[in-house]
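Now for a specimen:

…
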Amino acid sequence: MMRKVFTILGIGTLAMFGTRQLQAQTNLRFGLKGGLNLSHAHSEIDDQSALDADREYNGFGPGFHAGALAELSFPKGSKFKLQLEGLYNLNFMTLKEASNNDIQNKFTLHSVQVPLSVRYFIVPDFSFNAGLSANFNVAAYQKMDNGDYKNIKDDVNITPMQLGLHAGATYYIHKGFFVEARYNYFLGDVMTSKHTNLYDLDYNTGTLQLGLGYKFE
């Protein structure tokens, strides 16, 4: 699983840094970014008779993201810019049973995210960003009582790819260094229960990303 993730990110990173000549001839800038993920989840049970077992949203769990980006200006110096990224995401989520808050289900989700953002610069150092993303869910694990993590592919169907919406803001601290805040809302269910003979249990997620990055001149 991890080999697949690093292969995807490695190809993307090499492609970006292998185009320095293209960068010099166009309005392209490349960079790196990473930071904190704060993820939350909510589950719905379709069977109304099973509502007493419904799980509910339970705050934000910490994780991280890291990857590379490319920014394109139209024309050079324009307030509008496009930004394409390739990110690895590790998200932690906790769900509590609505009927018994002492029962917790803890999950980790590994994914590769490819966001495309439109950026509008209010001033040279500050921009608002919004766009779409393709999110490739690689694997999901559940934390057991003994502290080990179990691959839950036998219990749930993981959605291979989800579309997402995101919005946020970026502030340049000094030269190419910047800080960024972004909220991601993922469309559809990240995973669904295989035990449909009992009920349909669907999981929805969202992530707040707080990051630090650098863009090369």
Summary: Residues 2-215 form a domain with the Porin fold (CATH 2.40.160.20). The longest helix spans residues 2-17.
